[in-house]
Amino acid sequence: MSHPAEPALPAETSTLTARAILFDMDGTLVDSTAIVEQVWSEFADRYGLDFDEILRTSHGVQAGDTVRRYAPAGADFEALTAELGEMERSRTDGVIALPGAAAVLAALPDEAIALVTSADSILAGIRMEAAGLAMPSTAVTAESVTRGKPHPEGYLKAAALLGADPADVVVFEDAPAGIAAARAAGMRTVVVGKAGGELEPGMWRIPDYTAVTVTAVKDDDGGHLLTLTL
């Protein structure tokens, strides 16, 4: 005798409130995996380096820091970093937005969000445009900081620019270096995808933005109360 199927239970959701939301770019809003892998593969081949190791440690980190870590002694680190940067800027094939990212960005007030990326401003603009995403007015890029991720400087600077306390900020990140930076800044962190390791208190995970909803209510002081449902 057959029995009727049990009704599906609704997926568990989480609701977060914030005064500002900060987004990493590569792997978080924009899928640029194909280009990143091409560029670092060519770098590894040139110097006989372990490509998998470079890829494992470079994600979310400024390119110059990776060059200094792996390039052979005597290499012109600045010239090599500039060359790799030009390679990345000239390639946009396959750059796409993560599912739902455009809708989430469009639903948030521009004055309450910022991009915090290890890319420089030119590359960030190229990749956001290639992915069809609007660039937030506030962007903290590689040249805006003296210490890149995993140092929290970029996230703290973005929060200050938006006039938000770190405790009132939610960060969307995908890379271990970026997650470490956000956590060191004292910010709640939503991990996008599977690469962020184990979740700790104050962390959540989403596969992409398709199930994310946002609302924004303006305060009397001109700020915003943002509500995220994950």
Description:
By secondary structure, this protein is an alpha/beta fold. Helix content is 35%, strand content 19%. The protein contains eight helices and eleven strands. Strands 6-5-2-7-8-9 form a six-stranded parallel sheet, covered by helices on one side. Strands 1-11-10 form a three-stranded antiparallel sheet, with no helix packed on it. α3 crosses α4. The longest helix has 15 residues. It is globular and about 55 Å long. The termini are far apart. About 2% of the residues have low confidence.
> Biggest β-sheet: count, sense, barrel?
6 strands, parallel
The first-to-last residue Cα distance is 40 Å
Q: Sum up the overall morphology in one term.
A: globular
Low-confidence stretches: 6-10
What key phrases describe this protein's structure?
230 residues; alpha/beta; 3-stranded antiparallel β-sheet
What's the SSE blueprint?
Layout: E1 15-18, E2 20-23, E3 30-31, H1 33-47, H2 51-58, H3 63-70, H4 77-89, E4 96-97, H5 101-107, E5 113-116, H6 121-130, E6 139-140, H7 153-162, E7 169-173, H8 176-184, E8 188-192, E9 203-206, E10 213-218, E11 224-229
Parallel strand pairs: 2-5, 2-7, 5-6, 7-8, 8-9
Antiparallel strand pairs: 1-11, 3-4, 10-11
